[in-house]
């Protein structure tokens, strides 16, 4: 099934990194729904939180596809999915765990025309980037919900200083930490050939934006790009779990 006239292909990779014993990241790759979740909470609680989050998203989208007629995604449905995922994490984590969430979804927008578009939603500090093929440039779509990002926004530290700041892992918003959670949502209309990078901070804390921008267009093999980025993060220290999804717009 394609979503709203877009078609996609994707590559993905995830790795525990060099310093952690357990991979608490989870990822989701479906026909028109892609997500990265980076769990937190200590011991195996982070793994439970992230896996519960993506499983809830998967099941809801599968139910929509299986409906007669199949249900298209719109912004209301997207926000409902995030709310259900939040409830699932609250229950599974028993209030002691949470997870970031960054997702890309094909949607129908501006009804009644039903114009096709993409939506990027995020909570926490897992990121989404958009490589615009015609301009050969990459932009960061999401803004981290983190203590250091607030310092950057206030002009107290620079973005480069944030990469090594001692509070860089302090998250100000996460799935499963409150009965009600708000996601930032951006609606986009990419062109064929454009690519999206979804990733956990285990990648962005180790690999510069310039290197990400070069890598995202370096090959036609999206899985190879994802695995290469994981390797780069590990070569730079691998201090956290690393998860990468590359999505290309086909038409």
Explain how this protein is built.
There is one protein chain. This protein has 251 residues and is an alpha+beta fold. It has a single domain, classed as 4-Layer Sandwich (Phosphatase 2c, domain 1). The protein is 31% helix and 27% strand. The protein is built from 7 helices and 11 strands. Strands 2, 3, 4, 5, 6 and 9 form a 6-stranded antiparallel β-sheet that branches. Strands 1-11-10-7-8 form a 5-stranded antiparallel β-sheet. A hairpin with a 5-residue loop joins strand 5 (101-109) and strand 6. Helix 1 (45-66) packs antiparallel against helix 2 (75-93). The longest helix has 22 residues, at 45-66. It is globular and about 50 Å long. The model has no long low-confidence stretch (mean pLDDT 92). Pfam families: PP2C_2. InterPro entries: PP2C (IPR015655), PPM-type-like_dom_sf (IPR036457), PPM-type_phosphatase-like_dom (IPR001932). This is Protein phosphatase 2C domain-containing protein. Residues 9-249 form the PPM-type phosphatase domain.
Summarize the helices and strands and which ones pair or pack.
Elements: E1 8-15, E2 25-29, E3 33-40, H1 45-66, H2 75-93, E4 98-99, E5 101-109, E6 115-123, E7 127-132, E8 137-140, H3 147-153, H4 159-162, E9 184-188, E10 195-199, H5 201-204, H6 209-216, H7 222-235, E11 242-249
Helix pairs in contact: 1-2
InterPro entries: PP2C (IPR015655), PPM-type-like_dom_sf (IPR036457), PPM-type_phosphatase-like_dom (IPR001932)
Domain PPM-type phosphatase: 9-249
Protein name: Protein phosphatase 2C domain-containing protein
